[in-house]
Amino acid sequence: MKNNLFPVAKEGWNKIGYSFLAFVIAVVLDFDFLQFIFFLLTLFLVYVYRNPERMSPHFQAGSVVSPVDGIITAIEEIEEEGYSYKIIIDTGYLNVSVLRAPSTSKVLETSVLHGARLPHAYQLSNKLNEHTIIVFQDRQKNKIKVLHKLKQSFDTLHMDLLATQEVTQGTRYGVMIYGTTTLYLPQNFRMDIKVGDEISASDTLIGYFSKK
Fold this sequence. Notes:
Elements: H1 13-28, H2 32-48, E1 63-65, E2 70-80, E3 83-91, E4 98-100, E5 105-113, H3 125-128, E6 131-137, E7 143-150, E8 158-159, E9 166-167, E10 172-175, E11 179-185, E12 189-191, E13 198-199, E14 205-209
Antiparallel strand pairs: 1-14, 2-3, 2-13, 3-11, 4-10, 5-6, 5-9, 6-7, 7-11, 8-10, 12-14
Helix pairs in contact: 1-2
């Protein structure tokens, strides 16, 4: 993703191409209804895979920005080794699907588990749905764990990260169509958001790390 500067993410090119081809065939065969359906489908896919260029604000060192577009649905205190808070963000079909690095950091861990795409209301979706886990660590050794999980998506999770890779804040690293993102943050993190906020990847400040 880091070199994908096209207005439409490359992960969607095949689907858009097939949909447009189906539209052309429908035109040749004079199937008016199918022409309309495939034309709308092509426009929908172009919109879903849009890849806008964003000029990241210059936040101070220790800042964390949102890795996704969506709405914050929960902020919870937790007791998990190394983490004290989690923030849950819901990304809909009409949100920008491109994922971006939350901070200038090193990738300590990245893993993808391919699985089901059950509705979020199903209890088993929490364990079975396709997801990826990424752990970022900044220069001050502050860690951020990011969990991306699909809901009823028509596409798989796309990731372009390797362990030990260095990324800058706002760098594109993948695509997620219709899912949830959970940020796990340590005790020394100070939030600048609240439940219900609509946020944008790389544009919205989540908060800052204070000195340990």
